[in-house]
Amino acid sequence: QWYQRRVRVSQENVVTVRETFLPPSMSLVEFFNRDRHLDSANMFEVDSDCEETLDDAGDDPEDLSCYSWYLMRLMSVLLVQEKITTFLSDIGITPADLAGMSPLLASSMKTLGGWWEELLEQLERAYPGGCPEDLLPEPTPGYTVQQSVSDPDCTPFRHHNQTSLNARMLWHKLATETPISEYLQTKQPEILADDVCAGGVRTAFRGPEGVSSFSCYQNRVNMMVVTTLREILEIDVKTCMDRDKGIREENGEDGGGSSPFVIISNEDNKPSRKNLLLQSESASISSESSVDVFNQILKRPESGVRCSTAHNELPLYLTGNTDGYVKLWEFGYTHHLAKYGLSGNRGRVTSVRFDPLGARFGLSDTNGAIGMWHTTVSSLTPYCVLNCHDRAARDFAFLGSASVMASVGSSSNNRNVVIWDTLLPPSECAVKKFQAHEMGAMVCCYSSKRQVLISAGSKGDVCIFDVRQRKLQHMFTAHDSAVRSMCLSPDEELYFTGSAEGDIKSWSFGGAGGDQYSFSFGEGHKSTKLFSNLPGGSLKGVMKLQVDAANHLVSCGADGEVKIRLLSNMM
Hints:
The chain contains ten helices and 32 strands. β15 (about 360-365) and β16 form a beta hairpin. α3 runs antiparallel to α5 (about 105-125) and α3 (about 65-90) packs across α7 (about 165-175).
């Protein structure tokens, strides 16, 4: 109660009411600590009258050096980071603008990042083997790990007394709002680089025609969309991400005659959104020679898809078509949510990307233009259109924020790499133009950790640009043919290039003296002329590369396959 009401009645029977402010008797922190919003009586059955009973396994809530407390401290920092990041994204503030708008908040975010790294290092140092096997009780049959840890009874604190109540409530809070299940697995022996090159390649998908692109749902890397020039398929490759189940390696060990790839059925299988994203129903597809199992599949006929990208947080992805349009899809839905395109004579879409926060996205086309849209705005009209190259724009990358980007393509004056600032007037938004890549640039990516832009050309040459000084650091020849795809590792210590001939190579940053060649994966995706008559032209070599947070190098190409390589030791 924040005020009291005083009523006075005068001699003339006039009622006077006066409200007086009362200062609070306790702070909000004390109030919420006293009045718990979780119904502990129902969720956690604790009998205060009974004596303390212990299970044979589990952690002691008073032992702050156990694995559970290490993990809860780590997840608490992550939860705060996610809450602040979500708030900043909702109000349209990018990380690059945060330092100028709120230096205190930017410093706090930097401190949280330092805490995260320190806590993660402590966890890995204290428990190098990962999660103890007896930390949690046996999961409920048919439930995933995330669904199991969300159960209030699935807790490492199985001491039935009042002391463990607070620890169990905190564990349940973090288990329902953070990806804590990712740290509840025992670490497996890492694969050496020699083993990867020798054939540690796993085929997650193989189709009857070339794969033009793929994208992974960021919050669930096993959810993948695969695009060809005829259709879009959504598949769950959880078994393919597992190192011990459902994967056949290319070295001839077929595991008793089973096929080393997922067979896609011709029958329409259209699961609901709830089943696709939240449940783990599995479907078995049979062929004449093999039976393979995967969780979900959704098939849509869509011709001419050349590129795709997934949203940073939401279950959304974009596909770019040869007709010049970009469509926005949601995982699990059969129809697209929106359709975007530039006005006038539209060229073939060559690249689509979301900005670092996912609030904006853009496309590049063969007419040399780049268009930008707001993801959360229903308007189909682009808020920004840049005429970047007079021949073709092949790719672009955001340089740390949604307003600064780099485009690569082909121009008549050989200025094939350009840095843009969309906040400047149209006549001045081209901040810097570089003369590079004699026959045109094909792909690019940006390392925020090193502040460098990496571009690759149609003659196999790679250029490294220092964005801060706006100059070319060095260049070298990476492949004998055009570089069709490129990506960075999560720690930005390595980057990978894929050529039109189908080989994949990894490189480490070497500074001004030149980047260091690590090793080659050989013919990852052989070129083929089989699909040259399909809409949009032929597919050549490696069409896309991506390294997920679990250090899986995923690639697709003209041979119709999506392959996964485990790079734990390399990272």
